[in-house]
Amino acid sequence: MKRVLMTGAAGGIGTMLTPLLRGLYPEVVLSDMRTPKELAAGDKFVAANLENLDEVEKICEGVDGILHFGGYSIEGTWDQIHSANIVGCYNLFEAARRKGVKRVIFASSNHAIGFYPRTTHIGTDVTPRPDSRYGVSKVFGEALGSLYSDKHGIGVLSIRIGNVGPIPLDHRRLSIWLHQEDLLQLCRIGLEHPELSYEVFYGASFNERTWWDNSNAYSYGYRPKHRAEDFREHAMAEQAKLPADKVGDFYQGGGFCSAEYTADKKDIWG
Ligand SMILES: NC(=O)c1ccc[n+]([C@@H]2O[C@H](COP(=O)([O-])OP(=O)(O)OC[C@H]3O[C@@H](n4cnc5c(N)ncnc54)[C@H](O)[C@@H]3O)[C@@H](O)[C@H]2O)c1
Questions:
Q1: CB 73 near ligand 1, within 6 Å
Q2: Strand residues in the chain grouped as ranges (E)
Q3: Less Cβ around it within 10 Å: N or C end of the chain?
């Protein structure tokens, strides 16, 4: 990997990963439609809107691997999700193909499988159960990754990210938390592992309350360094401040499941 492109560089994850990427690869190109606030001397930033294929092709020029974090990162209207995550994601993979990019790491989400109950333990091969239009767009992105891998030979890793940050913020996040250094480790496997064709990993640190079987990531050498239970007291204290959410507390996707919820399944979630 000589030149690595990171989309979504001005966002939360992009801002956390930028300093960790410095010096790791000979050239890192940061991109977003907004300029990141914390650029350092030596950082290379090129603005591009994912909705514009020409602009996306330009940022993919000469690139070996892409960390694709750009997009609409919460539930939104269909227009918002459609332009950033459906059209934008298609443009990213298509530009990568046209420009001969070898690897793409796609930031998928736990919301692609959010309607699995918390009582289930699932692997990466389960049927998607998205909990939102946002979650549907992540299933779409995973499908694109699979297609561009099988049909065009791009090595693609979809990471179903839980929640990224320095500490898990509440009870749910004790199960799905991902420290940014562990995310970097997963990204590096996606960019550098010699045998990657198409894989799905869960983006989770060492979480003893996990709902996910992440053995696929472990088989590629992933060894998370951060442990959610080290922050249990803080997370539970924060949880105590939150209102109960019958639907959200039952399913893995939390509040994304209860938002706009109209199904009558009280027999299931009480
Ligand atoms: N933060 C998490 O814990 C988490 C969890 C699961 C998945 N993800 C995924 O990881 C990625 C990054 O998440 P984040 O929390 O940093 O999100 P964020 O919203 O903070 O950052 C996303 C960035 O994408 C950029 N963007 C949006 N639309 C664009 C477009 N049309 N063209 C160019 N840039 C565009 C935004 O300007 C923003 O800087 C997202 O795809 C998100 O869905 C994040």
A1: yes
A2: 3-7, 27-32, 44-47, 65-68, 103-109, 155-161, 163-164, 177-178, 198-203
A3: C
CA distances from 249 to 104, 114, 116, 143, 156 (A): 33, 11, 11, 28, 32
How far, in Å, are 42, 58, 80, 94, 139 from residue 98 at the CA level?
28, 11, 26, 6, 23
218 is catalytic: no
Q: Give the pTM.
A: 0.98
- CB–CB of 28/4 below 8 Å? yes
Contact 88, 125 (CB under 8 A): no
Q: Give tens-digit pLDDT for 55-83.
A: 999 999 999 999 999 999 999 999 999 99
Q: Which atom of ligand 1 is nearest to the CA of 9?
A: 39
Give the number of the atom of ligand 1 that is nearest the alpha carbon of residue 164. Answer: 3
